[in-house]
């Protein structure tokens, strides 16, 4: 079955690169397609949502999702991960500890935010631990000249923040940076009990260094933004949390 990104409600950002905004929490999921592999960035808020993402990603890629990157361990980004059987799962160092020892709080947070209790229980029971923990930078080869960089830039929004940088491969395209919730466009960035506010501006400095001035920055929630938006949000967070420099 051949479909376009737009027909499935996805936003095409560059050749073989797109994202969708999921209902409920306006959470972003991203897709990067190579000749022999495909990377999904974040997995949605439930197993059902993960299954829908897997199905759509396979239609768009023409083959299964081979890699899954989890930008941080909040339920709306990770609870669908078990739907991607066989995929290599990547997360920042420490995510596996959260999944092993903070399951009750993950479930409670999901239910507090409106996820059905049965869906939360199902997701917790099937929670997938990352196979690969990223402590610095990790390059993935998706074949056909498509490489993707995973970078651990946290702690910031959480203690375990991972970003995904996708270099342009076609003339006229721009680099795409999937930011997770380090950047939010549809509301003020959320700082919960697992945030490390004193490090957040520095994480955005690192993000800007990696992506550069011309990249497309994809927030965890909201519309795609540019470097200037990220810089303004960085300065606002520094002011909000009293971080100098």
UniProtKB/TrEMBL annotation:
UniProt cross-references to SMART domains, sorted A to Z: Lactamase_B (SM00849)
Organism domain of life: Bacteria
Pfam families: Lactamase_B (PF00753)
Positions of the Metallo-beta-lactamase domain: 26-221
Transmembrane domains' residue ranges: none
CDD domains tied to this protein: metallo-hydrolase-like_MBL-fold
Database matches in SUPFAM superfamilies: Metallo-hydrolase/oxidoreductase
Protein name (database record): MBL fold metallo-hydrolase
Record organism: Streptomyces muensis
Lineage, uppermost ranks: Bacteria, Bacillati, Actinomycetota, Actinomycetes, Kitasatosporales
